[in-house]
Amino acid sequence: MELTLAEFAWLAQKRLDPPVWDFIEGGAGEERTLAANTAAFDRICLRPSVLRGADSPDPTVKILGRTWDAPLAVAPVAYHTIAHPEGELATVRGTAAAAGVPVVISTFAGRTFEELAQAADIPLWLQVYCMRDRSITRGLVERAENAGFEALVLTVDAPHLGRRLRDLRNGFRLPPGILPANLAGDGFAEPAAHSRTGFDPGLDWSVVDWLRSVSALPILVKGILTGADAIRATEAGVDGIVVSNHGGRQLDGVPGTLDVLPEIAAAVGGRVPVLLDGGVRRGRDVLAALALGADAALIGRPVLHGLAAGGEEGVKGVFTVLLDELTDAMALAGLKTVTDIGPALVGPAPHPLRHGGGAFPTVPVGPAVPTGGTGRGTEADRPSATVPDGDRPHRTDLHLSDLHASVADPVMGTMNFLNEVTLRYPRAVSFAPGRPYAGFFETEQIFGYIRRYLDHLAEQGNSPEQVRETLFQYGPSAGLIRGLIAESLRADEGIDVPPESIVVTVGCQEAMFLALRALMAGPQDVLLVSSPCYVGITGAARLLDIAVTAVDEDGTGLSCAALEAAVLAERARGRRPRAVYVVPDHSNPSGVTMPLETRRALLELAARLDLLVLEDSPYRQVSPGPQVTALKALDRDRRVIHLGSYAKTVFPGARIGFVVADQPVREPDGGTTLLADHLATIKSMVTVNTSPLSQAAVAGALLESGGRLSRLNEETAAYYGEAMRFTLECLAREFPAGHRERLGVSWNEPGGGFFLTLQVPFRADNDALARCAKEFEVIWTPMSYFYPQGGGHHTIRLSTSYLTHADIEKGISRLARFIASQAAPAA
Ligand SMILES: Cc1cc2nc3c(=O)[nH]c(=O)nc-3n(C[C@H](O)[C@H](O)[C@H](O)COP(=O)(O)O)c2cc1C
């Protein structure tokens, strides 16, 4: 009797012809994604809860109005008849014999819908590939609906089938007699070639409307891998989402599905069910998927393994094993029902857990190695199983899928893209970087500042040796100049905190890292961000595997009502919203400033919801005129962690930032420390300490201005204010009222800071940016970069800070011509 799904796979491999086995098992390209699917589950560590009286757990779930015996379903897989002559008939009967869960029947099923509908009383869903000839798709849908199918699963990741190297090497053709039972015509023997002529490659989101126009059944989309697409799908009105990379058979290099699940679940926010497939091979994998936000998991290849191993009985065996493993894991983890499963159940494994010999047979990729390798072991075991020691290559080839997912995160890629565009078109006027204007910098200033600080140390009674030590040695992790920073905060900002509550950091970016690392204790903790959002904080969260939930700004910035709704929704999902990140003054990227009443309301809300506020405010002291009181200055009960930077007020090359963390921390021994103490401890493992030379330079600037950065920056702030005013003037000149409305152009009018945002009548993506840079020699930033969960597709960010008036005038006039050229076809 088989005790694991791996044993069914082993039996199947023995029974199937090697090219058929390869057709089933293979993935596209180098099979990185195929490996990533299972690797993601292997990295998971479960965190059980004991003494919960959960010995007879109930695995039932309710999805789309139907109760399923378990959070499981059969993924759509073409031609079950290739594994067993009874094909889908045996699958439906075998599944029903083990559990009342749905079977998704492929467009390319080997048995007819009508006979399957008669076979058993479990929900059947139809997987839809949308064909070039829509009448074929419509016919399939109508037949399935008439037969009693209950839902449609539209596959959206396959304009054509992926490059599956095993099939190409094997010259794979479907064996004689293997045909789609519900499609007429021919040319099916080579699935990849057929997909190129049969599938509609030009689909867009309107296909969902079309499908809805031909059927009343609920529609799920299968093949979603990003939060942004999940949002588009919900906006298109789908009834469910299947997180899937087609079992690694389409675009190789996309992440494992479990890795992207939290982002998608957060984006969907419980509005529709989220299902997942790819690499689910054990009951505990189902638990992991549910813990990270799925409502159920779909099983692909193992169903074919069961079929090949024993037809109907084999499929029943696969689902029996999965169900046994699932209920066993639930009982041992202290979970009485599926609703008890939440993010607290999972953590990353300290090192990848090895399957104790229960892994799938692995098939090495590459022409030199025979297909159908029989090594039974994990990815880590594979080299020794297939390559003799003496032949082992000396080079260490790392796989992207083995690196942290942030390495391949599209956000990191977009920033590179922006840098590249700027370098590739050096003659272009660039409104992209948020840099300070260089006209006020003088090299000698730096020496003057450092001298000033050293004199100050001497005046304080330090001996020449002590002064020397201060500059040459490592220094305290928390920083040398905390006292001066505290004085300056008091003088300039009305923020009254003791020096001990401050940690000096390497730029504000390190301050964000330290605060996030210390506050976010486990996978259940969520960071809320006002969206659009500065990428530094979302990037830091990504690197630290911290879940982010976006709270959309309205025209006036963060809305407290939206924040409260987001907090309550997260709590309902079993997560702990820990802190909200805001840039209240002249925000990067939107340019919006939070009014005083909103600041008060935010602090009141944070107290009521027991939430911390991360305040990041680098543009206050470089903006003209009086500023709205800082959140930290209004903070009476230490809710606000203030993140500071001297990049704009002194100079960015110093890389000096700081964090004010005056929150008391209760220690196990009854004593109390400050959060800042703990941030300094973590810092000692990151950058050890902030460069004393850089601290000296900033301290000198603080001393020279009597702690008043506002005074130091009077001229600079006036300059930036003037640059912003002039940019707005140029925009108004280029887009006079009337013309502006006709084109669909509008912008906001920030009173300070470096950024403003412009609504444009075209999709402001990388392609548009590259065209604009090349043909019109002007560069801007797509606002979509700043929406962690999608949005901003018709908005651009303009940075006005470091350009001269001549550049601004030239740049805005070029931009106006580009916008007109983009709007022209629609006009
Ligand atoms: C042999 C085979 C055929 C497949 N045929 C289809 C199909 O017709 N339609 C579809 O949407 N997905 C198809 N898939 C993808 C599966 O629905 C599913 O996404 C994938 O198999 C899940 O990964 P797993 O095999 O690791 O469980 C197929 C997968 C395999 C292995």
From TrEMBL:
PANTHER family: 2-HYDROXYACID OXIDASE 1, S -2-HYDROXY-ACID OXIDASE-RELATED. The keyword S-adenosyl-L-methionine does not apply. Residues 366-397 are annotated as: Disordered. Belongs to the FMN-dependent alpha-hydroxy acid dehydrogenase family. CDD domains: AAT_like, alpha_hydroxyacid_oxid_FMN. One of its GO terms (molecular function) is transaminase activity. Keywords: Aminotransferase, Flavoprotein, FMN, Oxidoreductase, Transferase. It comes from the Bacteria. Pfam families: Aminotran_1_2 (PF00155), FMN_dh (PF01070). Residues 1-351 form the FMN hydroxy acid dehydrogenase domain. Its cofactor is FMN. This is Aminotransferase class I/II-fold pyridoxal phosphate-dependent enzyme.
